[in-house]
What we know:
Residues 7-131 form the Mycothiol-dependent maleylpyruvate isomerase metal-binding domain. Pfam families: MDMPI_N. The chain is an all-alpha fold. The protein has one domain: Four Helix Bundle (Hemerythrin (Met), subunit A). The protein has helices spanning 5-19, 37-56, 76-92, 112-133, 142-155, 157-160, 177-184, and strands at 101-102, 109-110. A hairpin with a 6-residue loop joins strand 1 and strand 2 (109-110).
Amino acid sequence: MTEWNILTQAHTALRQAVAGVPDNGWQLPTPCSDWNVTQVLQHAAGDQLGYASFLTGGPRPDEDPFAPSGTLSASVADTLEPALAAAEQAWSDVAENAVDVPVPLPPFKLPAPVAVGACALDAAVHAWDIAMATGRPSPLTADLARDLLPVAHQIVEGPRAYGMYAAALDAEANDDAVATLLRYLGRNPTWTPTP
């Protein structure tokens, strides 16, 4: 079994962010301008299942992660945890030196460290989205952001052409590692909910 620290850190960030959502916070707006907190959770869980499915041939998400309904068909825990567990199990069977690992985004096959990094990037950035929406501290650490940035540079431009990522924002002089990653992904690191 392969241990992927980058994925463990990203999943921890997502779990922390979701655990911090107050009961009345599920309809709050997020940095993903078209989605509320519930929809970001559905998208993040669906993407983790998507990666697992590409690796194992197992079940795909019940609904399109890019068109989340905003209505959970199960509890929050039952939405998130099976998806994370499926991804963790699937990646544990991927060797570190694997070359053509299937992923659900262009170019659809990547070297293992980049492929698992793509899965981790998705979880970590949506953890940040949820935390920001609910006024919580960022669960995206500087170390994790530094590890994810090279992955982002390798995978984002293709999907960006299909609208899967927003246009990159200009860097600013005082950007730290987290802000640098977020701006590259088209997110404003100082985003706050509109009062």
